[in-house]
Amino acid sequence: MSVHVSGTGAGTGAGASGEGAVLKRLSIPEFSARKGQEPLVCLTAYTFPMAQRLDGHVDLLMVGDSLGMVLYGFDTTLPVTLDMMIQHGAAVCRGSKTAMVVVDMPFGAYQESPEQAFRSAARIMKETGCQAVKLEGGREMAETVSFLVRRGIPVMGHVGLTPQSVNTLGGYRARGRGDQEAAGIMADAIAIAEAGAFSVVLEGVMEQIAQAVTARVSVPVIGIGASAACDGQVLVAEDILGLFSAFKPRFVKRYAELGNDIEEAAERYAREVRARSFPGPDNVFGAIKKHG
């Protein structure tokens, strides 16, 4: 459990609370200082109730554009809009108190120019209350990252397998199988970190590359389908809970099978409604009492 408090001198960890302590979110500098220290715990969140459940157990809640596939049923993340990200980002910020919240920049909202990226990022931060934005891309996005950071917008990078480039990459296969591709991933991570990103997500790469990138760059590397050697890990919450069954990548571990529980609950509810056993006396107002 990760709880961040002010006024106690405490950092993170269960029990890090005291009289008069005020809950506060993990800050960007605190997050960055965890490089090479206790692994950073990150999960996606797209809704108010999910944010409430996850907050306090994680260091970072990521409002990923993966919501397009998980919540909306799109085949890729490409149809996701800026307005969609803002609405979900605001809900997650309202539902959380201690975790840092990072919101994805959707496809088409930042690639045109650094100026376009700033307008989009400024909207996201102003209208959601999040602490940072995340964008995909390596060396080609370094100028944009630097532009945003110099103007007060914290940026998390994302290199390796970048879902917004699925058409260019030719699918969701793991990256870095050859020397040239591996060198490119390393160069991308270095460029984004040196441009000022406070952290870099490294997705879907060969393990040895993830280890090398983590050792080389100066900011926390958050792995997803990468390596346990990374400075932290992120997964889609619905994946680890067994709620999203469209596909199960190799790097996902199921910690629960809540999808089965939902189906069983719906089946029991339907059976009781059809049998007129629900609602019962405890579920209606002014129930008529039967006298013997």
Task: Summarize the structure in words.
With 292 residues, the chain is α/β, with parallel strands linked by helices. It has a domain at 39-235: TIM Barrel. 36% of the residues lie in helices and 14% in strands. The protein contains eleven helices and ten strands. The chain has helices at residues 28-32, 48-54, 67-70, 82-95, 114-128, 142-150, 166-169, 179-194, 207-216, 237-240, 258-274, and strands at residues 5-6, 22-23, 40-44, 60-63, 100-104, 132-134, 155-160, 199-203, 221-224, 232-235. It has an eight-stranded parallel barrel with strand order 3-4-5-6-7-8-9-10, surrounded by five helices. The protein has a two-stranded antiparallel ribbon with strand order 1-2. The longest helix has 17 residues, at 258-274. The radius of gyration is 22 Å and the shape is elongated.
Which regions have little confidence, pLDDT < 50, spanning 5+ residues? 6-17
Overall pLDDT score: 90
Order of helices and strands: EEHEHEHHEHEHEHHEHEEHH
How far do the termini sit from each other?
A: 54 Å
Number of beta-strand segments: 10
CATH superfamily of the domain at 39-235: Phosphoenolpyruvate-binding domains
Name of the CATH class of the domain at 39-235: Alpha Beta
**Architecture of the domain at 39-235 in CATH?**
Alpha-Beta Barrel
Helical fraction: 25-40%
Describe the main β-sheet briefly: 8 strands, parallel, barrel
Radius of gyration: 22 Å
